[in-house]
Structure formats: structure tokens, C-alpha cells
Amino acid sequence: MDWKNTINSFKQYLQLERSLASNSVLAYIMDVEKLFSFSLTQEITNPIKLETKHIQLFLVWLNDLGVSSTSQARILSGVKAFFTYLAIEGEIKQNPAELIEAPRLSRKLPDFLHVNEIEEIINAIDLSQQEGLRNKAIIETLYGCGLRVSELTNLKMSDLFFKIDFIKVVGKGNRERLIPIGSAAIKMIKLYIHEVRMHQPIKAGFEDFVFLNRRGRALTRVMIFLIIKDLVSKTTIKKKVSPHTFRHSFATHLIEGGADLRAIQEMLGHESITTTEIYTHLDKAYLQSVITSFHPRP
Q1: In the prediction, which pLDDT does 285 show?
Q2: pTM of the full predicted structure?
Q3: pLDDT at site 118
Q4: 3-88 has which fold?
């Protein structure tokens, strides 16, 4: 049994028996090909000759190449699937990667903006320009509701329920949720609609979208990124700011204010509470930085 034929057989197994999408199949094959490259350094020409010690050395090899812990964990998952296939085929009796634990993954705390930094960005908006009111409404909505950028670009006029201070958004997995919206965001959206949007021609098919470009079409994700990048360049802020930064800031400021974690989970549209819990860690880091910065004996 050689590597080339075994990898081809594994590919057919993924396509035919597991019916995986082409991108998933490609990812698995790339993972196994990395193992193949490592095996050449160990002069192992037959994959069934690999033992647990070799898989451990493989992870060390990946680490030495600068592969991140997250990527190592994904690659190990692909390698385990490869050996599971060999076991199913009767080529090996035991999966040599079965008991190997993935590298410990660190959860990176997301960047967020302080309230004064958000105000600085808002103050950088030129309201004398046609798109000024629109851009201010965008920032107020991103920060005021904690939206994903795709939720913002797809926000519809029919999703605005200002009489009860809520908006409806469609998040990941086409899951709908209602989110409270504050008075600042409502005020700016109404100003934008009445002062700008009502007076511009709108392309067919885009009549229900809230935020439009000059050509009367819905704004793209890229355009939102560019708008924010341009605004930040006019401030003293040195952080890397994206639309998602406002979402992180929304959650962080709610945690700092003592909001219930379940309520924040609901508003952010997180399927699992563990995803939302990262903001509690961020809050602890923030509190630690406050002590370090301001306590007389940190």
C-alpha cells in the first residue's frame, strides 16, 4: 500500500460513502497530504506503518513550521478521519491518532471600543454630505443592536418595528430574532429615511432594503468595511476596527453594565451560551486593566 493510491481511495470514500461537499473533501485530503509530507522526512512510505509516536512527532513538526494551534487541531481531525477509514477497510487494527489530544486552543478576546472611541468615530462623520446621515445611522445601528454586518446589509424596512422599539433580523442559519433598538439608533434611521432615502431613486428589487448606496442598491459588506475604515482614519484611534468591533463593543458594554448573560446571548443570536461567555472573560480583563491603570498599588 502506497500513499498515492491510499489517498485516492480515501478521497473516493469521502465523496461516495460519506457524500461530503467538494470543499470538505479537499480539506481532508490537504490534511492527509501534510501527514504524507511529514512521513517522507521519516522515510515511511506506507501509511499503515505510522504509529502513535509518529503522529505526536507530526504535531511537533507542524508546530515548528509555524502552524497555529487552531490549524493543528483541524489537521489532526482530518488525520483521525483518515485512519478511521483505514480501520474500516481492515488495513489497520487500531487508529494511531485516536488517543492523541488536539493542541489546547486559546480563546482570543475580541477587540472592542470604549464609549469615548465610539463617540469619536461618530463625530468624524460629515453630516453635510449626502451619505453622512446614512453612515451615522449605520454606526448607531451596529453599536446599538450588536448586529453582524450581514444582518445590517440585509435589514429591511418591513423589519423595523419602531412603535415597540424592536427590529427583526435574520441571522446565521436563517434564524430570525427580535432585538431591542435604542432611541439614538431609531432617531438616526428615521432621519436617514426621511431626509435621504425618500429622495433617491431605488432600483427594482431593493425597495425594502433600509441602507442603500447612491445607485439605489443595497450596501455590500465590503462597502460597510470601507465606510468604517474611512471614518476611523479621521480619528486618533489606532485599533483595527471592523463592523464586528461594534458588535463586540455592544456586548462588552452590556456586560460591564451588569446585563444578564442569557439576554445578551439572545440579542447577539448566539446558538450556544459558551460563545457569549467570552465577553465575561473580556470584562475581567477590562477590570484588571482598570486596576493596573488607576489603583495606587497595582
Answers
A1: 55
A2: 0.60
A3: 95
A4: DNA polymerase; domain 1 (1.10.150)
Is 74 designated active site?
Answer: no
| 179: helix, strand or coil | strand
Tell me the C-alpha distance between 251 and 286, whole Å.
Answer: 13
Pairing of strands 176-180, 160-161: unpaired
**pLDDT given for residue 106 in this prediction:** 55
Residue 12 has a pLDDT of 93
Segments of the chain scoring below 50 in pLDDT? 287, 290
**What is the pLDDT at residue 293?**
59
pLDDT at 173: 75
Task: Please give the pLDDT value at position 158.
Answer: 96
**CA 94 vs CA 35, 49, 74, 174: distances in Å:** 18, 12, 21, 41
172 labelled catalytic: yes
Look up 49 and say whether it is catalytic. no
- Is 270 in the active site? yes
Domain(s) labelled CATH 1.10.443.10 in the chain stretch across 115-294
Q: Which fold has domain 115-294?
A: hpI Integrase; Chain A (1.10.443)
| DSSP output for 9-63 | HHHHIIIIIS---HHHHHHHHHHHHHHHHHHHHTT---GGG--HHHHHHHHHHHH
Catalytic residue among 18, 49, 107, 172: 172
Q: Is 234 considered catalytic here?
A: no
Q: Where in the chain is the domain with CATH 1.10.150.130?
A: 3-88
Q: Which of 34, 134, 136, 148 is flagged as catalytic?
A: 148
How many residues make up the chain in this entry? Answer: 298
Q: Which of 134, 136, 247, 248 is catalytic?
A: 247
